[in-house]
C-alpha cells in the first residue's frame, strides 16, 4: 500500500492531527491594567503559543455580556465586550495567529442568552415574532411549572413579573433558554454563526449543545434522578434534527472544526452526533469524570476516585466510540488537573504523567491554560474570594437547606470542586500578581505563583513546559498517536495505566505508574524485549519495561 492509499484509508484531516490550547480570556493576560485579561493580551502571547507548538487556540467567550456567568450569558453576539477590547483587537488576534499557522476557534453559546439580550427583552414584552423565542409557561407565581432543576442548583424556572409567565433556564436565572422549536430563532442563530465564519474563524466549541431540544409539555422529571428533569433536557426529542440543520446551514462546505460539549452521553450517543452517519459535528469532548464512580456529598463532587474506574471509562470511549473525540483533563469548568488527577506532593511528576496521558490518547487533545506549567488549585479562605456563580449558588442553597451553617462548613468542598480553581489568573512570572496585571486582578492569584510560573519554567529546560513542548512535537511526528488503534492493558491493576497505540505494523506502548508508590510492570500481552524508550518524565527511564520497577508517577512511551 502506498502512502496516498494509507492517507486515504486513515481519512486524514488537520483537526484530527491538531493539539488545541484553551484560553480563558478573563484570566490570561491583562494589558491595560484593569485587572481583567483582554484580547490584546492574547495577541501579545502569539509567539508563546507558537513556541509551545499548539495548532489551534480555543478562546472563551469575548462577546458583549453582563457577566452573570463570565461571558456565557451573551447580550450581543455581534459585539466584543469592552473588558476585552473591540472588533479591531479581535481581527488583529486572528491575523497574528494565522500568520503563525495557528487556527482560532470561538465558543458558540446558543442554548441560552443573557436576559439582557434584545431577543429576551422583546420576548418578555410579547413583541411580534420574538414572543416565543424563549420557553414561556403559564402558572401560579408561587409554583414552578414542573420539578426540573437547574444545573447550577435550584429550580430551572423563574417567574417574570413583566410578562406574567415562567421562563426556563437550565443554568443561571439570568441565562434564559432559547426555544429552538421556533424556526425564526434558528434562522437568527445561523445568520450569526455565518457572520463569524465569514470573518475567517476556523470553527467553534459548541457550548452545552445537546441541551437545545426540550419536549413540549415539559413533563416532570424522574424523582429518583440525581438531577431532576435531566432525562428530558439532555439529548432531547429533536436534538439530532437541530444539529443537522445547524451543520447544513453553517458549517457545511467550510474547512472548519467543531467540538461539542455534551454531558450525559455514551459512546453510542457520540457516534450518533459525530460519527460518519451522524449530525455533521466533528468531535465531542471525552470527559473522563463523566461515568466514573465517585462519592458524592450533596451537590459536591469528591476527588476520591479509583484508577480502575478511570480505565473503565477510558476504554469505553477510546476503544468503542465510532466517533472522533476530544480528550481533556481540565478546562475552565473543572478543578486543576494536577490537583484532581495527580498529587500536588509530586507536582512535576504528576503534571508530566498527565501530559503523557493526554497527548497519547486517541482523538484531538485539548490543553487548558496553565497545565503546561503545572498550575494547581487555589485555597479559598472566604466566600468573598469566590466569583463563580455555580459555586455561590450551591453554597447559598446548602445553607438554606440547613446542610451547613456557613461557608466554613463548605470550604473543604469548595476547595475541591469550584470552577474558580481553573480561573485564577495565569502565572507568568514571580512579579506582583504573577505578571498577569499591573492592576488589581479580578480574581486572586494562586499563592504558589512565585515558584510556579512561565518565566521560571522557560529558564529550566527540564521543566513541565519543555516536556509539553517536546511531547506535542512527538505527537505531531508519530502517526500512530493520531490514527492508531487504542488497546488498554492491565485494566484491573491498581497502579498502572498502560495501553498501546497501533497503526499497521507499528506499535507504541505507554506505561504510566499512576501512584505515589513504586510499582513493577508485568504484562504478558506485549513483548517488550526489543523496546526503545522514546519519551519519559524521568531522566533515566527503564530501557525494557518488563518486570521493571517504575517510580512514583513515572511515565514512559516505548516503540515495540
Automatic annotation (TrEMBL):
Upper classification of the organism: Archaea, Methanobacteriati, Methanobacteriota, Stenosarchaea group, Halobacteria
Entry keyword set: Glycosidase, Hydrolase
Protein name stated in the entry: Alpha-glucosidase
Record GO biological process: oligosaccharide catabolic process
Molecular function terms from GO: alpha-amylase activity
SMART domains named among the record's database cross-references: Aamy
Record CDD domains: AmyAc_SI_OligoGlu_DGase
UniProt family annotation: Belongs to the glycosyl hydrolase 13 family.
Domain of life: Archaea
Keyword Ubl conjugation (UniProt): no
Glycosyl hydrolase family 13 catalytic domain sequence ranges: 22-423
Keyword Hydrolase part of the UniProt annotation: yes
Pfam families: Alpha-amylase
